[in-house]
Write a structure and sequence with these properties.
Layout (H helix, E strand, L loop, with lengths): L1 H24 L1 H26 L4 H28 L5 H23 L3 H37 L2 H10 L1 H12 L4 H40 L4 H11 L5 H17 L3 H27 L8 H35 L5 H7 L12 H15 L1
Helix pairs in contact: 2-3, 2-6, 2-8, 2-12, 3-6, 4-5, 7-8, 8-9, 8-11, 8-12, 9-10, 10-11, 12-13
């Protein structure tokens, strides 16, 4: 009995390792297909409405794709113009950084009793490394972005054929699972389509709202390049936890490096992103993004790390919707239901802390006031 269990476990791990190795090696093919799949789910409701109104499927797909390309292209051109007009003065940053390093050197020497030459040696080395890294990344950012955009040109082709052959793919799945399991397969496919479309659409709306809030707040505070920092922070918010932290840290770091007296402005930026994050978590996302995607934070963090390990930044971007789809499938397969429970939020309700009760009281009070 034990040998059978060990053999089954070893075989499972071997197959899993082969599968992971294959998807890593096929990254250049699978990443565009995966991204195209989620874009397809986002555009499917529009295409379906046009088809139901009598428009031919090919024409409906072409019209929706054309409108999407125009909108995305317009936003990309706007952001590209903003980035191309951004000239970061690294000489000014180095001068400000040298001043702050001198102040820090004096503080460390007086407080810790360290030798000035030793402190100066290590701080100068750290400063030079940071500036070299920043200049190198700033110089390669545009070319990397251009390369990525060139690779993304294939996405409309994938999306077109996925929307065109969606019925054929569904019938393929029905034949694969057999007539007996066809009703359950149909239910799973409809659930995946509904949840993914509402999630992707809601996520897009959240990004637009956050971009407006971030840019407006940074402009009011007076941070240079507010449009770039605000849009970048909104886009990074797609990656839970990690993206939010990075998006808020960039303008704070820039203020600290460029302002002679950075603390008041940096404090305002921290307050701004804290307030925006509070609104996003408790007001915007719960009311905009589909509530059907319920995952616990540990599962989300692990999926982000695995996504980054396997497919890099693209893997982090699609990790959450992929995990949500996996959960839908697990919930409808008896042997996999325990795994759906494991990555879900249930089971720790009595230990949880939430601001929702307070927020519900506030909404109730506001509603009673209006009456």
């Amino acid at each position: 009995m034990k040998q059978n269990i060990l053999l089954k476990t070893a075989l499972t791990l071997f197959i899993l390792s082969i599968f992971i190795t294959a998807i890593i090696l096929a990254k250049n093919v699978l990443v565009p297909i995966a991204i195209s799949t989620f874009i397809m789910y986002l555009l499917f409701p529009l295409v379906s409405k046009l088809e139901k109104s009598g428009v031919h499927r090919i024409i409906a797909i072409m019209l929706v794709l054309l409108a999407t390309i125009v909108v995305v292209g317009g936003i990309s051109v706007f952001v590209t113009v903003q980035v191309s007009n951004t000239n970061v003065d690294f000489t000014e940053i180095k001068e400000q950084l040298d001043t702050k390093v001198d102040d820090l050197q004096g503080f460390l020497a007086n407080w810790l009793g360290l030798n000035n030459s030793t402190v100066d040696k290590y701080l100068t080395q750290i400063t030079n490394n940071l500036l070299s890294f920043a200049e190198d990344k700033a110089g390669t950012l545009f070319s990397a972005t251009t390369t990525t955009l060139f690779q993304l040109f294939v996405l409309p082709v994938f999306v077109f054929f996925m929307l065109y052959y969606r019925t054929k793919v569904a019938y393929f799945i029905f034949r694969l699972v057999g007539r007996k399991n066809k009703p359950k397969a149909l239910y799973v496919l409809r659930q995946i389509s509904s949840v993914t479309a509402s999630y992707m659409g809601g996520l897009l709306i959240v990004v637009l709202i956050l971009a407006v809030l971030n840019v407006s707040g940074l402009l009011i505070i007076g941070v240079r390049y507010a449009i770039i920092f605000g849009i970048l922070a909104a886009l990074l918010n797609i990656i839970p936890y990690i993206g939010t932290f990075i998006g808020g840290s960039l303008p704070v770091l820039y203020v600290i490096l460029t302002n002679p007296d950075p603390l008041p402005t940096a404090f305002k930026v921290v307050i701004l992103f804290t307030a925006v994050q509070f609104l996003e978590n408790n007001v915007i996302t719960p009311n905009v993004v589909s509530n059907n995607i319920k995952l616990n934070p540990l599962a989300i963090i692990i999926s982000l790390l695995l996504g980054n390990l396997i497919w890099g930044m693209a893997g982090m971007l699609i990790a959450i919707p992929m995990l949500a789809i996996a959960k839908i499938v697990m919930q409808n397969v008896n042997d996999l239901k325990p795994f759906a429970y494991l990555i879900g939020p249930h089971g720790v309700e009595k230990h949880s802390m939430s601001l929702k009760p307070m927020w519900n009281k506030i909404k109730k009070a506001v509603g009673n006031g209006k009456k």
